[in-house]
Amino acid sequence: MAKKGQKYKKWTAEEKYKIIKPALDMEISTFQITKDTGLNNGMINNWIKIYREKGYEGLIPKRKHNNPLAKYSNKKNLAKEEQLEYENMKLRIEN
C-alpha cells in the first residue's frame, strides 16, 4: 500500500514486457515473478492479460485527460484572479 504523498511508478511498455516475458514463455510462474520483483501479483497478471488481448501496444501507458477545474475545486478560498480563471474555464466548458 502506498504511503501518504508517495508517487506511483509509471511503467513503460518495455519494462512491463521485460517483467512478464518469462511468464509468457512459461519459464517461470507469475508467483515467482512476484517474489523476484516485489510487485503485486494482480498487476503482473493484469499486464499478461492485456498483452494477450492487445499485444505489445496494450502495454503502452495511456495518457490521462485531467479535469482542468480540479486545481480550483480543491481550494477553499480562491484569490480574485483564480476566481476569474475558474469562472472563465467553466464557461468555456459549457460552450
Describe the structure.
The chain folds into 2 domains: 13-59; 65-95, no CATH class. The mean pLDDT is 85. The chain is mainly alpha-helical. Helices cover 56% and strands 0% of the residues.
The helix/strand order is: HHHHH
Which radius of gyration do the C-alpha atoms yield?
A: 20 Å
- Give the tally of structural domains: 2
User: Looking at the structure, what is the overall shape?
Assistant: elongated
What's the helix count?
A: 5
Average pLDDT number: 85
Key attributes of the depicted protein:
95 residues, mainly alpha, 2 domains
Q: How is this structure best summarized?
A:
The chain has five helices and no strands. The protein has 95 residues and is mainly alpha-helical. The longest helix has 15 residues.
